[in-house]
């Protein structure tokens, strides 16, 4: 760039025109600014309570995705406390965990066998539905209504004696 017309160039464009690297540019941006992306974790007014959603976040430990599902859920921790209430369901990793009636947990693949969208538990119908093309499944994973033709994979789910910890296994 040969000439810079005063007032016509943004700060970033000007700095880039000087040939500075991206990291150097970020240092310039952060100096003397209040950009939250540059602040420390302590500065964040809305800290992410679920920094690792792939593993299910706080309260979940183990493998929640893929072919070797094997995890525990601490239902004394938010947001999993709702899994103690009959008529609730929650997706954790690749798994839909539901409590249709008190003490009778079910765990199934969240991945619809039609085209792979995420299914959900329906309290009123007491079943599982894919909201994309309306396939319906029983709580044992069987197809109630297509277009899906194959059942949902099911997992073994057990609850601890104190009712606070779920274990889900393939
Ligand atoms: S992806 Fe679930 S019904 Fe089509």
UniProtKB/TrEMBL annotation:
Region (Disordered) residue ranges read 40-68
Q: Which UniProt keywords apply?
A: 2Fe-2S, Disulfide bond, Iron, Iron-sulfur, Metal-binding
Q: Which Pfam families match?
A: Rieske
Please tell me whether the keyword Chaperone is annotated for this protein. no
GO MF annotation terms: 2 iron, 2 sulfur cluster binding; metal ion binding
Q: Sorted alphabetically, which SUPFAM superfamilies does this protein's record hold?
A: ISP domain (SSF50022)
Query: Which residue intervals define the domain Rieske in the entry?
Result: 94-166
Record protein name field: Cytochrome b6-f complex iron-sulfur subunit
């Amino acid at each position: 760039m040969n000439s810079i017309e005063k007032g016509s160039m943004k700060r970033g464009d000007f700095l880039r025109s000087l040939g500075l690297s991206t990291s150097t540019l970020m240092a310039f941006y952060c100096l003397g600014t209040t950009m939250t992306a540059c602040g420390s974790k302590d500065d964040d007014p809305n800290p992410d309570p679920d920094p690792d959603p792939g593993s299910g976040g706080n309260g979940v430990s183990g493998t929640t995705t893929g072919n070797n599902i094997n995890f525990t859920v601490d239902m004394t921790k938010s947001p999993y406390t709702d899994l103690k209430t009959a008529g609730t369901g929650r997706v954790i990793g690749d798994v839909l965990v539901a409590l249709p009636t008190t003490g009778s947990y079910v765990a199934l693949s969240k991945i619809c066998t039609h085209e792979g969208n995420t299914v959900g538990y329906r309290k009123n119908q007491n079943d599982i539905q894919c909201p994309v093309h309306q396939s319906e499944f029983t709580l044992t994973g069987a197809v109630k209504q297509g277009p899906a033709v194959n059942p949902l994979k099911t997992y073994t789910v057990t609850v601890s004696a104190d009712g606070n910890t779920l274990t889900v296994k393939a």
